[in-house]
């Protein structure tokens, strides 16, 4: 039987502190296809951010393993995004996350926090856990994890939660693919974000029976201004896809 004390120490799967910070310091722009982060105002509430990060760091691997998959994935996405904000604030002011660490210290490889019992870096969360083959098999995470760059899908202004995760991931996908600056159909070809090039294998690994990038984007073809879903599915081998340059400038408020 779970005791009252154990209940009081249970992890908050609503991610309330993080949600409150996002609501106050992240703004939808460009009709909701992108967002902007007010890092200066985040800095003024660094104690609340640190309290949330401490809550994340206290979760053990055993506790994490007992959660439903939706709660696990929401936890991982929020952790990645929140620790990314902390990384930016640790090195503030900065014009791009790629400016952090210099030539010999990749910002995504820096062990600057404790997570699931060990010193960790951001790449560990994304590539060794979230993207681990056979674990979640959820390509839409690439529209939820945020690398603090303009080229990246929007940092959502609410926390991800297990019970709403499917809706949130789909909403993030549609918002990103509605941004003609980063994804579009032009002159008879799709021009997509480099995310689809870097992580192409994730989009054609069998999620919902999908085994090609053309098939993944087919349901969003109208959003992109492209041909019909049925036409894409019928002529996948004829679909031409180019990839756009990535804007690594900080997604911050100026």
UniProtKB/TrEMBL annotation:
InterPro entries: DUF547 (IPR006869). Residues 65-177 form the DUF547 domain. It comes from the Bacteria. This is DUF547 domain-containing protein.
């Amino acid at each position: 039987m779970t005791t009252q004390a154990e209940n009081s120490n249970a992890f908050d799967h609503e991610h309330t502190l993080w949600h409150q910070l996002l609501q106050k310091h992240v703004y939808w722009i460009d009709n909701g296809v992108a967002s902007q982060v007010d890092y200066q105002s985040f800095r003024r509430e660094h104690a609340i951010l640190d309290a949330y990060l401490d809550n994340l760091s206290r979760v053990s691997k055993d506790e994490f393993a007992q959660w439903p998959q939706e709660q696990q994935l929401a936890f991982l996405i929020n952790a990645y995004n929140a620790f990314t904000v902390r990384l930016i604030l640790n090195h503030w002011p900065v014009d791009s996350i790629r400016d952090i660490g210099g030539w010999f210290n990749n910002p995504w490889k820096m062990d600057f926090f404790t997570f699931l019992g060990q010193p960790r870096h951001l790449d560990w969360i994304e590539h060794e856990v979230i993207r681990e083959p056979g674990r979640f098999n959820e390509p839409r995470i690439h529209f939820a994890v945020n690398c603090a760059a303009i080229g990246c899908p929007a940092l959502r202004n609410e926390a991800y939660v297990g019970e709403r995760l499917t809706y949130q991931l789909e909403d993030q996908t549609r918002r990103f693919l509605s941004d003609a600056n980063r994804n579009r159909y032009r002159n008879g070809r799709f021009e997509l974000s480099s995310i689809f090039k870097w992580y192409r294998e994730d989009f054609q690994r069998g999620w919902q029976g999908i085994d090609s990038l053309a098939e993944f984007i087919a349901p969003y073809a109208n959003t992109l201004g492209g041909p019909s879903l049925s036409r894409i599915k019928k002529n996948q081998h004829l679909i031409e896809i180019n990839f756009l340059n990535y804007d690594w400038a900080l997604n911050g408020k100026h």
